Amino acid sequence: MTPNEVGRLIASFGEAASLARKAGFDGVEIHGANHYAVHQFFSPRANDRVDNWGGTLSKRMNFPLAVAQAVRDALGPKLIAGFRVTPFESEPDGYTLADSKLLCNELARLNLDYISVSLDDYRKSRPVRETRVYDGPAEKSDTPAESPITEFARVIAGRSAIMASGGIKACTDAQGAIEMGADLLAVGRAVVVDPEWLSKVRGKSEESILAGRRDRKDR
Model's pTM, two decimal places? Predict the structure, then answer.
């Protein structure tokens, strides 16, 4: 991409956020994770630029920070702006948890409402790989000793909320993520599998959810 094309892409994120505001949405989440474009600009594996948008860690942060600022500006101060980030790359030569903590520290300066920690399973600190494999072993042996959720919560220090995701299927799962430092929880697959999930949780009838999980494992 030429520098002009990069600039137009950043502007398009702001335009999309503006359209979401006009359409009546309460907010938007920037997908800066899972090896899509915003993630790729931050990744030393994908980004081999030598201009303002790549090279050093600080320059690789420029694109995600510019996108976040464009979205925040387009939404205004009242609507919700979130940013989803992969905490580290499990592939060789990928960015580290220390790198993403620096990024999240800068994101928190932009008055984002929350930062979402993208994990396949929050307990295992397992991020989505470039090639998605759910059950295989991690490619890196240096999985962080402490959860990225806890690490991010410490760095952000209340300036933005922390959202946890991955493997949250019942209240006991949610409580575990909250104890690690999460303020918010994202639930995806559990709701897809069981469209009555929310009513079961509210009605304290989670046993039927857990029974369904056991049945699927047996099959």
Answer: 0.88
